[in-house]
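Recall that a protein's primary structure is simply its ordered list of amino acids. Everything else, from secondary elements to tertiary packing, is in principle encoded there. The following example makes that idea concrete.
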Amino acid sequence: MFFEDIKEIPKIARKCGTAVFVVPEDATVNIKNAIVLRPEEKSVITIEQVRGVMARLSVRQTADCFVIIRPTELLNEEAANALLKNLEEPGEKVHFVLVTSSPSSLLPTILSRSALYLLKASVDEGVQADEKKKELAKRLMVAKKEDLVGLADEITKKKDGVRAFALEVVGVAIEMLYKSYFITGKDAFLQKLPKFLQLYENLAKNGHIKLQIVACLC
């Protein structure tokens, strides 16, 4: 969904358990008395930080409590996994505000548990990827069953860093599907998302790249 002004975030977040807000990196997001998770010394958000917040939230909340995680893509894997149950069932008064400028960088398991809100101005900004990845992502988005084997071969023909490359291509496709939906309003883009999210998750778990591309997107 679109929102017009960053100042709307507290109002929108109050209506959600967990929401991802896509805003520019330098945008200021303020929510009074919010708990804020940001990268510390290691340039990532760690499981220790997450556990500290979870301990604070274990006490029953009598008023709205907001947890801002920014940038959400800097949650390390352990921290993200530790958060999943809370993101899915945050509690009546708890609101997770996940702030990012690149939704395709978030784990599919996080995206699937969150409402997604894009600042209208950010939708017009280009997807941050090189032309080759964007081209392959576009082709994946519209590929017919008979095209998938050839595309899988093309994506995996690199000698080094094949899995990282494949994950980036699929991530770009996910971002383009979201943006295409918000620009056009056509449900066809949303209907494709579960397959791409599943593909990303399977690849991240070291699934066979070619087999997963064909199996998930057929």
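The longest helix spans residues 162-184. The longest strand covers residues 94-100.
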